[in-house]
Amino acid sequence: MDQFVLAMSKFKRQKYDDCIEICTELLKKNEYDQATWLLKCRALTMKNYIDDLEIDEEGVADILMDDNAMATAPRPGTSFSRPTSSANGGISQNVRPMSNSGRPISGYMRPGSSRMGAGSSRGQLTTAMKANRPGTNRAVTSGGRMLRIGTASMANSGGQFIQADKINARNTAKKKYMAKAVVDYLIYVEGNFRRALDVASEATVLSKYEDWWWKERIGKCYLKLGMIKEAERQLQSSIKTQDMIVTHLELAKVSMRRDQALKTIEVYQSGLEAHPFEVHLYTGISRTYEFINDPTNSNKLCKVVLNFDNTNVEAIATLASYHFYTNQPEIALRFYRRLIQCGVNNSELWNNVGLCCFYASQYDIALPCFERALSLADDTNIADIWYNIGHVAIGIGDLGLAYQAYKIAVSSNPQHAESFNNLGVLELRKGNLEQAKANFQSSSTLAEFFEPCYNSALLLWKRGDFQESYKMIQKSLELFPDHIDSKELKKNLTQHFAAF
Amino acid sequence: MLVTAYNFSLNHSLPQGLVTINKFDGSSPALASSTTGGKILIHTPHSKDEMDPVLGLKGKDIQYLNVNKDVVCLSGGQLNPTIDRDLLMIGSKTNLLVYDVNENSDVFDKEVEDGINCMLFAKDFNPAFPLVLTGGNLSLTGFDISSDDQFWTVTGDVANTMEILDFDLDQEKELLVGSDDYSIRVYKGEELIFDINEESKIQFLSKIQNTSFAYSLNNGSLGVYSGSQQKWNKRVDNKISALLGVDYDMDGSCQLMVGYQSGKVEVRKSIDGEVAQTTNMGASISKIAYEDYRLEGTPQVVICNTDGDIKGFNITNNAAAFETNNTGGKQTDAAINKLTKEIMKLEADLDKDNFEKKEADAKNLASVVPSEFKCSIIQSTVDESACLIFEVDAGLVIRSVLLFSDILFENGSYVSCPMKGTNSITVPISPSKSVECEVDCKIIVGNSVSAEDFMTLHETVVFKKFSLFKNIEFSKDYSEGKAPVNVVSYRMKERPNRILLWAQKVFNLNTEQEGYVINKSDSLDVMFLHVKTQKQLIIQARIESSGMMFQISHDDLETIGDMVQDMCVFMSIHELEPENIECPFDAKLATELIENIGEYDKLRGHFSANIAESVNNAKAFVVKGEFSLMLGDMASVKKNYTVVQQENGSLIGEYLQRRNNHEELVKSLKELNNFIRKASNLRLGPSKGLIVSKSREAIKAKKTIDVVKICLGNGPKF
User: Fold this and answer.
1) What topology is assigned to A345-371+380-407 in CATH?
2) Is 3.40.120.10 the CATH number for A57-146+243-341?
3) Residue A380: strand, helix, or coil
4) Would you say A91 and A55 are in contact if contact means Cβ atoms under 8 Å apart?
5) Compositional bias (Polar residues) spans (chain A) (predicted)?
6) Which residue on chain A is closest to B618 by alpha carbon?
7) Sheet with B62-66, side-by-side order of all strands
8) Are A292 and A79 in contact (CB under 8 A)?
9) Nearest by Cα to B367 from B444, B423, B424, B446
10) Rg for chain A (alpha carbons), in Å?
């Protein structure tokens, strides 16, 4: 069998490593075999290919030195960093844990959901590095996170295929189809957006600005280089040439970078006009609503998505968590069961099923679910599961189990702030005031949520340390302005100060 | 009259002209202004939403927008007729950003190739939809809500200010544009319908009422036009920084408010420019607006200064208070007037006495100027310049000549006072622009230089438009190398005699000598030489079977256009299309320009990408450096920050390159626009506008090369 035909067949069967190997051999014999070269280029690209539409994590540098957002203090509900308050139908922070920027911490994890908001931690280098999973961190720049974890080590084996810096942009661009392969290689394998842009800009001129693909790629490169205005222009022009779904999705990212939630929805909606019933666009709108804490609209669109694609994990999970937090654990359970039917089998899901069972008073099923979750868990999420077990234990009155569960949680993840908070409460019950205080303290420094602040303020108040208590209550109110108990405590404190 | 209603300070500098008051949420007014560092400040005193306490914002009613570009002009208006709120329009040097403040979303961000220098929101300029008009380098563009340029035309120079009003009372709005070339142009749609010449760069235009508008110039002139009629103009000492027409005394007719850089605000009557009231704001005025900023139901005059103080004035027709205040003034005025008149009368009497006495003396000395003598004023063109020659009868002496004209002379006047007694004075005049204007002449004539009595003659001369062209002897051999290469010919139903009549009006013709003006019944040949540029101009007309061929040959297309326009006005021709245009140099130049523009445009993207890359690298290394600092690893800190410094250096280098490239690009675009304008000026009637819009289409479709063809035609058409 001809080796080249074999390589082609391997490529079609997605056996990229084999394909690359055969091509490398062929190229050794004849360096100028363009067909083989092209095939190898494609194989390398496909091997490293990553759906970058979904993964758009910004680097630390981009977040810290971000000046793309137009408005510094936009109206609530019009920006990703300032979601609407619970008054507009969102779920209260009391019920659903939220980050200080008002984003829910729990729920379906999506690209971009870990983006920091405009809260007080913004602009601090120490918190910027932390990604939302323990043991992971953010890349310094957005270009650095384009490699798939599993293949990252293999990517550079066998030396560089294309020397990015030696490419002559104009000559490359002239070889029409080769140029496309080269640009994709530069983007997906090398992550060298600058050179990719050079080639693409030459090529788009040669195509007389009539090829949407080049414009879309230029837009992608601009976006990665942080030139979002230029990116927007190229993508819009690409849509004018040929209306493609992928371009709409890319374009929506521009508005997200500008921190313009309503504009993002508008971009998706304009995409829907040309491509009705497109699930990705509906999902995009649904996500955007979720980001601005508008579950009513978000759920509506999740249901639309499920009409077209009834195994869409994201939509099912979003609906499930919404029902869970709105006190309908039985309905949430049905959604989670659907997820299990769809073939999802991970510790987070079993954990959620366990919680739903517990709240639906099916105690006998709850604990086996947690057991299963524990058996599937790894270092990144085991603390969360133990935390939930502790939570359930408190609910059934087994404080000893709860105490142990929280201890395990903080031992497997010493950064687990929620467990520290609950440990503090348990210590308080036991009468260990100093222990409790220390736990609240470490909890409030580890993460920014209001519970430990309020707890510690209450404790300090009862012990008569009004000054410290006032400080903590202010912090609590900063994180959750509508918290009634905090307000009450603050009022009491102010009265005391006035009396003095 | 104005009564202070409120006074507060934003504690932010409000730059001159970059302030706008609009209803961004559809109901309550907000003030937007550009501040330092590419930011825009929005002051929303009546915001309905409670500001987010999470951010712990102090000064809740002020928010900032990051534009990250220098804001050149700012405007607001209901650009989208389907939604009931105003959008904010932000013009930077190269981009127009339309932003919905209420929804925190960009409506569009459009790159404007010709740059933005001034901006105006025009609700009813185009009756179909509102437009935002931008004025840039020699071009005007109007965008609708979907960022399509629904309006585009070329103008004379950099547009400085625009205003919309019904200039010719036809119930349709016209666009007035004031530009750097001393002109106020009036556009009806895309067609230029009127051109007002002023004596300096136009600074502001502001509508007062109906057809009347105020203007101010860079040299400190201030005036009011009603349609094309000038009502008044005055020179003011201070620099003007804001204009507004407002019904100040509530009598139904609007007066003019003028803000100065000194902080003074004046109300002037729009009829005669008389000052009615003044007030002072301390610092330079940045904006005068007439808005209901406190939601009281009636609008107030809102004055902002550059220190960020905002003062509101209620307009009252508290006639009683006003009258009593003013009648006092009026009575004093009347008394002074009366006394002045008396003084004048007494002085006249005294003069008369003196005169009679002198007359008696004079009779004795016989040195009186004869009561009848001739004074001739001749316009001619000599070797270096155009000139006016004043001549009186022999035996008399011209003591001095005073000439007044704002346009011809830099300071408005010219005095010639020869030492020796002479009966003829030649005043050289070299205007910078071809323009017809009236010169006010005062000629002081006496018997001798040392005579005691002189007579003053007051004459008005119309200075011919193309006086700088010297009539030379017509010859058919163009061997001197000065022969014109540009030839534009027209076919029209006219007679050569009419052309001659026109030529007499605008040129200094030499009809006395043979061979200068060759005029036969069926032909006319005249030849000129521009005294400054030394370029020839040949005007020829021939009667042929199909009409008269009229042909102008000259190197400067602009001048040809000027002449054709002037001639058509003279002969009341409304439509004219050139038969043939030959201008090899201009065509070549335009082709080169177009090539250059393509090149610059390509390079620009390259430089921008380089800059972005450097910025990204610098950012990454700053973060790395800071992490090293946190770890106490000083060697790495140093290493990382060295890279930051290098990146910074290359960033600046790339930026300089991009700036130079951009400057070249703007220059080329400007010249291309100028070329289109010149070409359109060679025509009259509908085709004039058609050329412009066709060229625009070609540029938009990136078929720039067609522009030359469109402008110059594909050769003779029969």
Assistant:
1) 1.25.40
2) no
3) coil
4) no
5) 78-103
6) A61
7) B19-22, B30-35, B39-43, B62-66
8) yes
9) B446
10) 26
* Nearest CB neighbour to B66, from listed A70, A197, A261: A70
Q: Which residues of chain B have pLDDT under 70?
A: 47-60, 318-331, 355-373, 476-482, 714-718
Residues A347-371 as b/e (b if ≥16 CB within 10 A, e otherwise) read bbbbbbbbbbbbbbeeeeebbebbe
ipTM above 0.85, yes or no: no
In eight-state DSSP terms, residue A83 is P
Per-run averaged pLDDT (10 residues), chain A, 500 residues:
91 92 89 88 87 69 72 74 58 69 68 48 56 56 48 46 78 86 88 88 88 93 87 92 92 87 92 91 90 86 92 91 90 93 90 93 90 90 91 91 94 89 93 91 84 91 90 86 87 88
Chain A contacts of B53, Cβ < 8 Å? 477, 481
- The Cα A103–Cα A114 span in angstroms is 9
In chain B, the residue whose alpha carbon lies closest to the alpha carbon of A192 is: B613
Phi–psi pair at A175, nearest 5 degrees? -85, 80
CB B678 within 8 A of CB B583: no
Could B54 and A478 be called an inter-chain contact, meaning their C-beta atoms sit closer than 8 Å? yes
Q: Find, in chain A, the residue whose alpha carbon is nearest to that of B98.
A: A70
B132, B125 in Cβ contact below 8 A? no
- Tell me the C-alpha to C-alpha distance, in Å, between residue B134 and each of B97, B107, B664: 12, 17, 21
Helix (H) or strand (E) holding B22: strand B19-22
Q: What is the pLDDT of residue B53?
A: 42
- Is the separation of the CB atoms in A320 and A303 below 8 Å? no
Q: Does residue A201 sit at the B interface (CB-CB below 8 Å)?
A: yes
Q: Which of residues B556, B582, B608 is at a domain's end?
A: B582
Q: How far apart are CA B552 and CA A85, in angstroms?
A: 75
Contact check, Cβ <8 Å, A72/B66: yes
Q: Say yes or no: A87 contacts chain B, CB-CB below 8 A.
A: no
Instruction: Give the per-residue pLDDT at A7.
Output: 93
What is the second-level CATH architecture of the domain A415-500?
A: Alpha Horseshoe (1.25)
Query: Interior CA angle at A294 toward A288 and A295, to 5°?
Result: 100
CA atoms within a 13 Å half-sphere pointing along the CA-CB vector of A331: 12
What is the end-to-end Cα distance of chain A in Å, rounded? Answer: 96
Query: How confident is the model at residue B593, as a pLDDT?
Result: 86
Domain final position from B582, B608, B635: B582
**What angle do the packed helices A399-412 and A382-395 form, to 10 degrees?**
170
Residues 6+ apart with CB under 8 A from B528: B469, B470, B471, B472, B507, B536, B537, B538, B539
**Amino acid B683: pLDDT:** 84
Residues 6 or more apart whose CB falls under 8 angstroms from that of A317 comprise A107, A108, A335, A339
Structure-token match 């929804």, residue found: B103
Domain CATH number, residue B542: 3.30.160
Identity at B94, one-letter amino acid code: T
β-strand partners of B186: B176, B194
Output phi, psi for B510, to 5 deg: -105, 90
Alpha carbon distances (Å) from B585 to A177, B157, B360, B477, B556: 42, 22, 72, 21, 10
Q: Tell whether B690 and B611 lie within a shared domain.
A: yes
Contacts of A387 (CB under 8 A, 6+ apart): A405, A406, A409, A416, A418, A419, A422
Is residue B30 a part of any domain in this protein? no
Q: Do B681 and B595 belong together in one domain?
A: yes
pLDDT at B436: 79
Three-state DSSP string of A117-147: CCCCCCCCHHHHCECCCCCCECCCCHHHHCC
- Given an 8 Å threshold on Cβ–Cβ distance, is A233 in contact with B66? no
Output the pLDDT for position B700. Answer: 76
